[in-house]
Amino acid sequence: MTLLAPAETARANRRRGTAADGVTFWHTLYLGTTRYNMVPGTPDPAPDALFPMAFLVEQDPGSTAQAHYHQQDQFQLVVGGHATLGLHEVRPVTVHFTGAHTAYGPIRASADEGVWYFTLRNGFDPGARFMAMPQNRVALRAIPDRRHREAVAGPLAAPSAATETLLGPEPDGMAAWRYSLAAGDTVTGPDPAAGRGQYWVVTRGSLDHDGATLPAMSCAFVYPDDAPFQAAAGADGAEVVAMQFPLHRS
Question: Would you say domain 163-244 falls under CATH 2.60.120.10?
Answer without folding.
Answer: yes
